[in-house]
């Protein structure tokens, strides 16, 4: 057996330029410039291999001996230590690129494109709730269509919209991983869709109050509370509950409510002409104002996204707040001669193709102002109820 541990700490420290053996294939190479490098010589399948073990600056004699023994043991098994070390590095790198880690990086990279940095739209939620708990710790390079199929199968038909969003987000994450140079199957989500098949889920429309019944409900909101006033303004403006909840006095200008792009589902600024009735509701809400918000919660922030829905539930109603947008749209179609593009613009819907929109530079604000006055007249019981 070859002698081991030939060098002492003093010899290592004072070694002259050249190569100095510690035995067992461990060498210290002292360069003429003063730098020193440990390396190990082993013979594998009749071929001599040399692997660096680090600089003397960072690797002590003791550490070099321990590392050398580790790789000598590998060599005794007939394995190439250099290849085995590379394999370890690749495995470590894969561990650093789990789906959860890459998903977080992909989300961070997209935040600037998302409304409210992705928080308002909950971009990350479908991944966080339905995918990461199951396969988040799997190296993303190992994920295939079968993994994705098994993960989303429980909700593919029962929660079709959520499953669709989760699949979409996962596809974005896989493409982000490919851009990072990782060996992923960017077609895995499409293959998983093929395995899952067409969703059998039939979408349900949000229950809405018949437009004929809106005046009676509006009249019942007569207590002047934050919830009553919020529901009244929601009905009068035909907006979404999130837009009402975060309504801020700074957004009201000359009888027009200007909702900034970051708060809109479309990502575009939306102007809403306020009827006289709507302006009156805003005045009634001002005493409740906190930090500019008209509809604050009892403790902090604004009323929750469930406040108005729960109120209608307690009244035994099937209809929900979002349904008043449908009530308004049906009223436009059945009780007025409002052109489609004006009615749709009132709901902040995208109207027409890209070319048409490029040439149409109006949001019909004044025409909609007249329309919202007519709607307010109906809602308050002053118009023809049909």
TrEMBL record:
Region of interest: Disordered: 1-26
Coiled coil: none
Keywords assigned by UniProt, alphabetized: DNA integration, DNA recombination, DNA-binding
InterPro entries named in the record: DNA_brk_join_enz, Integrase-like_cat_sf, Integrase_catalytic, Integrase_DNA-bd_sf, Integrase_DNA_bind_dom, Integrase_recombinase_N, Phage_int_M, Phage_Integrase
Top-level taxon in the UniProt lineage: Bacteria
CDD domains noted in UniProt: INT_P4_C
Domain Tyr recombinase, residue spans: 204-372
PANTHER family tied to this protein: PROPHAGE INTEGRASE, PROPHAGE INTEGRASE INTS-RELATED
Family designation: Belongs to the 'phage' integrase family.
Name this polypeptide is given: Tyrosine-type recombinase/integrase
Organism: Pseudohalocynthiibacter aestuariivivens
């Amino acid at each position: 057996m070859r002698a081991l541990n030939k060098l002492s700490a003093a010899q290592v420290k004072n070694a002259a330029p050249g190569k100095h053996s510690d035995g067992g294939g461990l060498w210290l190479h002292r360069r003429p410039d003063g730098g020193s490098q440990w390396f190990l010589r082993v013979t594998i399948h009749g071929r001599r291999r040399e692997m660096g073990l680090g600089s003397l600056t960072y690797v002590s004699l003791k550490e070099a001996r321990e590392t050398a023994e580790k790789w000598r043991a590998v060599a005794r098994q007939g394995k190439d230590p250099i290849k085995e070390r590379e394999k370890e590095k690749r495995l470590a790198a894969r561990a650093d690129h789990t789906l959860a880690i890459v998903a977080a990086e992909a989300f961070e990279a997209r935040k600037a494109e998302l409304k409210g940095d992705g928080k308002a739209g909950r971009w990350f939620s479908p991944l966080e709730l339905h995918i990461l708990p199951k396969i988040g710790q799997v190296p993303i390079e190992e994920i295939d269509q079968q993994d994705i199929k098994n993960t989303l199968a429980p909700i593919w038909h029962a929660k079709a919209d959520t499953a669709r969003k989760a699949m979409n987000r996962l596809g974005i994450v896989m493409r982000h991983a490919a851009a990072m140079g990782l060996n992923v199957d960017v077609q895995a989500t499409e293959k998983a869709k093929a395995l899952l098949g067409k969703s059998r889920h039939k979408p349900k429309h949000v229950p809405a109050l018949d437009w004929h019944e809106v005046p009676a409900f509006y009249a019942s909101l007569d207590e002047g509370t934050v919830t009553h006033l919020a529901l009244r303004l929601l009905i009068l403006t035909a907006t979404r509950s999130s837009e009402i909840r975060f309504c801020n006095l700074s957004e009201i200008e000359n009888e027009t409510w200007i909702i900034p792009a970051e708060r809109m589902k479309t990502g575009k600024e939306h102007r809403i002409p306020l009827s006289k009735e709507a302006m009156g509701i805003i005045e009634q809400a001002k005493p409740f104002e906190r930090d500019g918000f008209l509809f604050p919660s009892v403790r902090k922030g604004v009323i929750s996204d469930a406040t108005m829905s729960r109120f209608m539930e307690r009244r035994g109603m099937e209809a929900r707040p979002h349904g008043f947008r449908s009530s308004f749209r049906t009223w436009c179609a059945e009780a007025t001669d409002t052109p489609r593009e004006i009615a749709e613009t009132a709901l902040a819907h995208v109207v027409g193709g890209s070319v048409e929109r490029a040439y149409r530079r109006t949001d019909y604000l004044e025409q909609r102002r007249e329309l919202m006055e007519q709607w307010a007249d109906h809602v308050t019981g002053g118009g023809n109820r049909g």
